[in-house]
Amino acid sequence: MAASAAAMAAQPLRRMPQISAPVLFNSTRIFSLYSRQLLLPAVSAALPAINLNIPAWLGGIWESILRAVPKKKTSHSKKRHRQMAGKALKDIKLCNCPACGQPKRQHVVCANCLSSKIPHPTSPLKIRTDERR
User: Fold this and answer.
1) What are the tens digits of pLDDT across the range 14-69?
2) CA-to-CA distance for 104 and 95, rounded, in angstroms?
3) pTM assigned to the model
4) Which of 9, 90, 104, 106 could form a disulfide with 110 if both were Cys (CB 3.0 to 4.6 A apart)?
5) Is the dihedral of CA 43, 44, 46, 51 positive or negative?
6) At 95, is the secondary structure helix, strand, or coil?
7) 100 in Cβ contact with 110 (< 8 Å)
8) Per-residue pLDDT tens for 87-102?
9) CA–CA distances in Å: residue 82 to residues 65, 69, 90
10) Distance between CA atoms of 133 and 123, rounded to whole angstroms?
11) What pLDDT score was predicted for residue 64?
12) Residue 70: half-sphere exposure toward Cβ, Cα within 13 Å
């Protein structure tokens, strides 16, 4: 009877797949983890859950971090309000025109100087007529 009990105890071990060491080293990480679970199912089931040693004062903060999630879905109207809200305008940099002294935008031609140099579109144009043709 003792021999049959030992044979029965060894029988589940024979049902397990046998993997040689070189195959384990050449296999991928996922396959090796899977094969370890197949080879040692009782050991993996017997291990307790991972226990993190977090200090007590950090535990309270950790609870608040885990609970800091939205309670309800943001409504469509709130999303639209945020999207369509007025954005801050960029500041306009002004300087004085070196030619006429009038304020103008930086890196832009002075409107006062430009209007004095270019004839107005409503003013009569001087058409040059040459008698030589």
Assistant:
1) 455 555 545 444 445 555 555 555 555 555 455 555 666 666 666 677 777 777 77
2) 6
3) 0.28
4) 104
5) positive
6) strand
7) yes
8) 888 888 999 999 899 9
9) 25, 20, 19
10) 28
11) 72
12) 4
Tokens 């296999």 locate to: 27
Distance CA 128, CA 124 (A): 12
Taken in order 88, 89, 90, 91, the sign of the CA dihedral is negative
DSSP 3-state of 116: helix
List Cβ neighbours of 24 (8 Å cut-off, separation of 6 or more).
Answer: 32, 35
Residue length, the chain? 133
Q: Is the pLDDT of residue 4 over 80?
A: no
CA distance 20 to 35: 11
Tokens matching residue 10: 């060894």
